[in-house]
Amino acid sequence: MTNVLLEARGVSKRFGGVVALKGIDLVQHQGETLGMIGPNGSGKTTFVNLISGHLKGNSGSIRFDGRSIEGRNPYQIAQAGLTRTYQAVRVFGELTVRENVGTALVDAPSALGQDGVRELADWLRIGHRFDARAGGLTLLEQRQVELLMRLVQRPKLIMLDEPVGGLSSVEVRVMIAILAELKSRCTIFVIEHTMKVIRELADKVVVLLAGEKLAEGPPADILADQRVIDRYLGNIDA
Description:
Blueprint: E1 4-15, E2 18-29, E3 34-37, H1 44-51, E4 59-64, E5 67-68, H2 74-80, E6 82-84, H3 97-105, H4 114-123, H5 139-151, E7 157-161, H6 169-182, E8 187-191, H7 195-201, E9 204-209, E10 212-217, H8 219-223, H9 226-231
Parallel strand pairs: 3-8, 3-9, 6-7, 7-8
Antiparallel strand pairs: 1-2, 1-4, 4-5, 9-10
Helix pairs in contact: 3-5
């Protein structure tokens, strides 16, 4: 296996008296697609928020690309090469796709140049909409724009929070194809409830339940684990 890219040790987070994460250990290697699954409220998004600097943990350590990133702001972590998308797609609806990309290039010294941006937009199947207002795009197109906004920053790791949420079955297939190709461009961490995404993309899966790690391993093993079936998969359309 290649070098460790992301390492979390004993990561915990409390909101008042509520324990959202309890002692999470996780290692992701460069080039490895890691899937995180679990019920709503299990702590998945909280974990991504901690890693990406949007929340501060109560205990534990977080290292990215060999360096501690605890206490850094999100823009500093993004500059270090770790970026993320959101469950609810975040684009500027009144701006064009081109203008949305421009906002992502601010304070991104290693970002792609103009030719690289257009190549990436075409690869993401959104280049033909480059001058369209983002608010008038379909949800799939907005998710493609959000990916473009993150990828022009040339991340080493991109954390995707439910990238196929709200998409039709046909659109899910399109996004899976994009993400399968993305694996050759950067390392992916993906949260999903749609098990088709996990089965087809993930090299390793971590299962969270009530803020604790329930299981970890290859997708085939995790999706056949009776504990995971009984406590999570049995309640969703896998």
